From TrEMBL:
Residues 27-44 have a biased composition (Pro residues). It comes from Pseudomonas ekonensis. Residues 1-20 form the signal peptide. Residues 24-78, 112-134 are annotated as: Disordered. Keywords: Signal. This is Lipoprotein.
Length: 134
């Protein structure tokens, strides 16, 4: 074979091999829509009609999502204090199997009827300490 034929065959072989190893272009998927909705269009505020009472706010929950209520007692959950407030015993609270009582100082018990042991502000839930502070 002459040199021209060799060069032609080599050039064709190189050119065809380049086509064989070329990666196909990846398939493009449509963009994923955002998971959070965009800003809502603002609506003009309507003034309250005279004589029509405003909607009452949501009722305060009687129980906590995190803490069980005291057994057998009437109580309600106080979000600010972070404890159940016993309805029939003044200044008596409950959280996590412990009752807390304020009587010019803190005491705690495993029963709402005692026996009570004295404790300090560090022995009560934080919300109670802030409310009654010593």
């Amino acid at each position: 074979m002459n040199a021209l034929a060799r060069i032609t065959i080599i050039t064709l072989a190189i050119g065809l091999s380049a086509c064989a190893v070329q990666q196909p272009e990846p398939t493009r998927l449509p963009p994923i829509p955002p998971s959070q909705p965009g800003p809502k269009p603002s609506t003009p505020a309507t003034p309250a009609k005279p004589g029509v009472p405003a909607k009452p706010s949501k009722p305060v929950p009687r129980t906590s999502a995190s803490f069980a209520p005291p057994p057998g007692g009437n109580s309600h959950w106080d979000q600010k204090l972070g404890v159940y407030v016993l309805d029939d015993q003044p200044d008596t609270f409950y959280r996590q199997r412990t009752y807390y009582r304020w009587n010019n100082g803190w005491s705690r018990s495993i029963s709402p009827n005692g026996p009570w042991e004295e404790t300090n502000i560090h022995g009560v839930p934080a919300g109670l300490g802030k409310q009654y502070g010593q």
